[in-house]
Specification:
Elements lengths: L11 H8 L1 H39 L2 H4 L1 E6 L7 H7 L2 H14 L12 E5 L4 E2 L14 E7 L2 H4 E6 L14 E7 H7 L6 E5 L5 E12 L5 H4 L8 E4 L8 E9 L15 E6 L10 H14 L1 H10 L4 E3 L2 H44 L1 H9 L4 H30 L5 H25 L20 H24 L9 H4 L1 H16 L1 H12 L5 H11 L5 H36 L3 E5 L8 H8 L4 E14 L33 E7 L1 H11 L29 E6 L1 H7 L4 E5 L2 E10 L11 E5 L10 E6 L3 H9 L5 E5 H7 L4 H31 L1 H13 L4 H34 L6 H4 L17 H29 L1 H6 L5
Parallel strand pairs: 4-10, 6-8, 15-19, 16-18
Antiparallel strand pairs: 1-11, 1-12, 2-4, 2-11, 3-4, 5-8, 6-10, 7-8, 9-10, 13-20, 13-21, 14-15, 14-20, 16-19, 17-18
Helix pairs in contact: 1-13, 2-11, 2-13, 2-14, 2-26, 5-10, 9-10, 9-11, 11-14, 11-20, 11-26, 13-14, 15-17, 17-20, 17-28, 18-19, 19-28, 20-25, 20-26, 20-28, 20-30, 26-30, 27-30, 28-30
Length: 953
Amino acid sequence: MRHNNRAATAPWIRTRLRTAPGAAAALAVLVLVTAFLAAAFPRAVDAYETKGLRHDILSADASRSVLEVARPQPGLELPQKQRDAEVRSPELTRVGGGLLKALPAPLHADTSSVASGVRTTKPVLADEPWLPRPDAIPPRLSYVAQSGLKEHATLASGAWPTTPREVTSDSRQVQGAVTEETAAELKVKVGATVELLTAAQEPITVTITGIVAPRDPRGSYWSADPLLRTPSLVPDPEAPFPVYYWTGTVLLAEDAGPALLSTATDPVLFWRIPPDPAGLTGPDGARLTSVIASLESGPGLLKVRETAGDTAVFATGLGHIVEANARMRDAISPVIAVAALGIGSVAAVVLLMTGALIAARRRSELALMRSRGGSLRGIGGRLLAETAVTVLPASALGLLLAVLAVGEGRWWPGALAAAGVGLLVCVALPLRTTLQHIRPTLHGAREDMVSARPSRRRTVAELTLLVLAVGAVTALRRRGTSSDGGTDLLVSAAPVLVALIAALVLVRLYPLPLRLATRPMARLRGAIGFLSLARAGRSSAGGALPLLALLLALATAAFGGSVIAGIGDARDDAALASIGADARISGVSERTTLPDELVSAVRDLDGVRGAAPLRIEHSVALPEAVAGDGGANGNGAGTDTSTGTGGGSAEDVGAAAMVGVDPARYAELARATGLPAFPAARLKATGPSAPLPGGTESGPERVLPAIASPAVAARLGKEPQALDTLSGNFKVQVVGTTPRVASVSTTNFLIVNSAALEQRAPTTLLLTGAPDAGKLHAAVEGSGKEYAVQLRSEERARYVNTPMQAGAERIYLAAVAAGAGYALLAVLLSLLQTAPERRTLLARLRTMGLTTGQGRRLLAFEATPQALLAAGGGLFTGWATIALLSPGVDLVPLALAGVAGSDTSPVLLRTDLWSLGLPAAGVVALAAAVAGVQAWWASRRGSITELRAGDSR
């Protein structure tokens, strides 16, 4: 019998996990969080792009988004029965079903709102005497026989239009209906009749049998052609002066289409197919554009004509909607890429720091194994297996949490990102650990950054990286940051490049101030200063890797914070430019003036700090430009006098807005709203421009001083110029320029003293302060319905984020939070790497008489140089990144896109001091806090307990 006398061996992985469960759990949590962020980012981008595309399609007018296939009426060479059959419901429904099946992916139809029928393309004059004639011009009506009327409307009065007998081209009596809005505006009643002439001038009597109410007035059935729902008062293009007439639509019975074939209205057959964006995703945008182009004039159109006829045409505005969405996505993507690449680099560096910390803690253990014959392959394999058992489940769990947290998005980009995190940790940790033990080494001398001299290989590697980074930044600075399309990785990597340069340079320069500071400290009587500087110089916590992580995190946080702050500032500025102050009261029409009682009542409301009455006249005709005159002198309102900001050259400015102000009150308003300083003294009404007595007419010889926009000043010149206005006839002489005025959005304007005008009653009242919105609305409504109130806060609320804007902002907020978190983690990891040495040092020094307070100061002073180095480098890196990228970053797509009437001038990125300074200050504060906690914890353990744990060098 054979006996196996070999001792049983415990599995390596189980033993290691039981020996250090805390380290394994900490690594798993770090990998879990990093994998979650890495997998959630592409899914979040897909989610907001998907929601943005669907939102843009759903919120667009149905007249733009609907897909319409149309073809002319059947040819006259065909038999009458065949022509009539082709425009009846069965044939139209059959063709519509074929068109739905022919729609290529990713286009999908909203089948509940599909409509087909026959409609006239030329409006017909309606001579019935009971129809309204605003300017003695009879209305013009269109006629449509459209399917699905009963499904999309309710009967308000009368009966549904029907076809008691089969309608043909020879029919001369049909039934129809109109909507409630059409009936109200055109005075249509149930039982009324309208005559429609045939091409042979024979009358077709259309009897209005019912009035219907749309179930979904904004749906595509009624909004694809708004005249179906609402009549319109339109100008007559043939009249020599402005006159208007009504136009509307009569809804014929569904099968009454053949009657229109006998008219001279050029009837067409149509199929309206509203798109269903529920199945679309963000990446489908490019395919959707290609498919629409094919349907409009490509292979897709040939398939449409196979179903609808050889003369069918396809028309839609959906392509323009998708292209606008793509432009916004392309404008937002480079800004998001900066945050993604920055946070991704920080996470990678922190993971490498974690591996370095674990390798340092296990250096003695692995050195012993190596000295006893352990092979690098065997050691590396065991480390890989040990790491994979912890890391791979954490990566998979992070991916699962990302899928659950962000429900919409492609799965494979997130899976690749999470797998990349796991692979990085699984490879980096064994590789970093085994490379340190290629040769068995004895215990070496302590590291000292002050006296250490880096190897030549390290010097060459650092110089190579430095040259490459400097070259990339130089190329980026020379060619600019704007990209013609897509995301430029060189632009997105700007924070990484700047941080790499700063880290390599600062690590090399860091020992110099320590050497200079150590010498005078050595001469002092106290030992704390000298010991702290000596420890700071010997610590490995100030290496390039921890510093690079801190600089990257601080730069990304500063850039993200500046983007978020810039979005808020842009919206605040746009709201102020639109309203002019905190509140604005004006008439519903341009010539409506505000009564004195209203002005006094509003001025006395609680919260109103200032009130500036203005008299505004738009489109005041200007005289011809003065040849060879440079405009007003440069002593204007302390602002730019160039014509570039004034909206064009002097020859292009034919009209301007005239604003009459009270100079003193307007100057206060300008100071309160942050406008350029207003020189109220230059508009002082004295001499010929003194205020007119009541009832006195203004003479054309009066010359009023005026402050104008640069373009208007260039057109008027330096000499007095005559103006004819509703406020009187007078001359103006430009005495200064200013680029903005707090009352009108146009860039062409001139400002005069309202006291010198013949008609000086204000048309607008601007308020500063925080008045109660309810009381303000009540005060204005009490004066009549002809006055309106606009609040700056309400205008600011108009800039509601679209899904794409909101998603991009959330990603940036997450980037700032993640950057701050990784920065704090980098500080903790760098301090934890040398924590055993600190505890042993304090224990030894306490045996020599060091007090607890001195121990705290020692650790705080030791951490201060490294924290100050990181904070100062972070400030520089953040500022340099913003300065490098700001020329090519326009925040308009993030801040103002999608808001009608908003100012779309470029909004450049500016440095936000809070975003730049707070993270850097947090690094210093955290380093001091960790040093204090370490000193407190070491004092609790006691010197004997700490020294028994082993002599940690």
